[in-house]
């Protein structure tokens, strides 16, 4: 039986919520399970899940630590270390212990989504490793200094402010989706198109959707604090 996004989400949602993550029905990125939380330093820590294409029950997760929730975005001067799988920030002894393998150098580890003990192990690894990203002062400094991160963050800040009254501006749009996506009201897409156009950013249906999703998710997490 093939592991599905719905099945995997049902397995990990409750324990990840205990760790402070909020689940989002997010289909715009490539994540097959999307969880995020806002940190004390104002950054966001997002965890995206990936189901293996060939091994029907296997999955893994990738952290994304940034001022935005744009999971996996590492273009421009965004530090690649922002986007990392847990095994790569574990010690060799930890990998040997938690992965139950002799090869302690194996970093790209995958868990069994149908095995409750494997799911529990995944949650323990997330709990063990997540703070290593936001406690990494060098990485935090790189993110702070990234022009690409600042641009994305500023776009989202402006969309969050504009979305509540965008309909009062009576504007025309070219890149809106035909209907709401992932429960995001159409106003967020309108505000995203307007902000991208105003700043002469890359403007197409995909960039509008990505910005709307990021701003909408940020807004929910901001208000949960």
Automatic annotation (TrEMBL):
This is Immunity protein 35 domain-containing protein. The lineage of its organism: Bacteria, Pseudomonadati, Bacteroidota, Sphingobacteriia, Sphingobacteriales.
């Amino acid at each position: 039986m093939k592991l599905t996004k719905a099945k995997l989400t049902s397995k990990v949602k409750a324990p990840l919520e205990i760790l402070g993550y909020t689940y989002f029905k997010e289909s715009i990125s490539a994540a097959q399970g999307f969880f995020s939380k806002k940190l004390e330093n104002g950054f966001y820590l997002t965890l995206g899940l990936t189901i293996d294409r060939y091994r029907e029950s296997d999955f893994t997760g990738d952290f994304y630590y940034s001022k935005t929730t744009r999971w996996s975005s590492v273009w421009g001067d965004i530090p690649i270390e922002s986007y990392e799988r847990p095994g790569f920030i574990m010690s060799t002894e930890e990998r040997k212990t938690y992965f139950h393998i002799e090869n302690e150098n194996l970093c790209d580890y995958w868990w069994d989504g149908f095995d409750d003990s494997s799911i529990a192990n995944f949650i323990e690894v997330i709990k063990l490793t997540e703070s290593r990203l936001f406690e990494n002062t060098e990485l935090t400094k790189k993110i702070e200094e990234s022009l690409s991160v600042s641009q994305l963050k500023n776009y989202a800040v402006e969309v969050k402010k504009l979305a509540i009254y965008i309909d009062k501006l009576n504007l025309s749009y070219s890149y809106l989706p035909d209907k709401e996506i992932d429960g995001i009201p159409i106003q967020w897409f309108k505000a995203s198109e307007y902000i991208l156009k105003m700043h002469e950013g890359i403007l197409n249906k995909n960039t509008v959707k990505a910005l709307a999703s990021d701003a909408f998710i940020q807004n929910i997490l901001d208000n949960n604090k």
